[in-house]
């Protein structure tokens, strides 16, 4: 029985799924938008939004928790300095999933674009 087991397995082992979400999270934080399947986008949303909520707290403990997931100091710095500040005062809804009209060519998987709802403002010095 599947009592209280949430989330999709995506035909991967637990370690493979964790690595997949880490890589996709890094890509989303770097580029602001990624193109993937609908199922992966819906699952990734439940990983990225708590990270942005952590970044809004902006204390040492939240930085360490973010580093524990991302594993890269530059990504943590980007998350806390560029990605999270536009979301100050917003309670959730940091990502948007837009379904694409055409499926993937090889296996006809439904595709979607996962993007951050607010763009980070980069200042030029």
UniProtKB/TrEMBL annotation:
Keywords: Ribonucleoprotein, Ribosomal protein. InterPro entries: Ribosomal_bL17, Ribosomal_bL17_sf. One of its GO terms (biological process) is translation. One of its GO terms (molecular function) is structural constituent of ribosome. GO terms for cellular component: cytosolic large ribosomal subunit. It comes from the Bacteria. Belongs to the bacterial ribosomal protein bL17 family. HAMAP family: Ribosomal_bL17 (MF_01368). Part of the 50S ribosomal subunit. Contacts protein L32. This is Large ribosomal subunit protein bL17. It comes from Desulfovibrio litoralis DSM 11393.
């Amino acid at each position: 029985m599947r009592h209280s087991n949430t989330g999709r397995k995506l035909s991967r082992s637990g370690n493979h799924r964790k690595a997949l979400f880490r890589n996709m999270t890094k890509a989303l934080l770097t580029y602001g938008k990624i193109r993937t399947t609908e199922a992966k986008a819906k699952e990734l949303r439940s990983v990225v939004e708590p990270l942005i909520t952590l970044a809004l707290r902006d204390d040492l403990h939240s930085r360490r928790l973010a580093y524990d997931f991302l594993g890269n100091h530059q990504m943590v710095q980007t998350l806390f300095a560029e990605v999270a500040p536009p979301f100050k005062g917003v309670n959730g809804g940091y990502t948007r999933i837009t379904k694409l009209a055409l499926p993937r060519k090889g296996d006809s998987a439904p595709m979607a674009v996962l993007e951050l709802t607010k763009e980070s403002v980069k200042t030029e010095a």
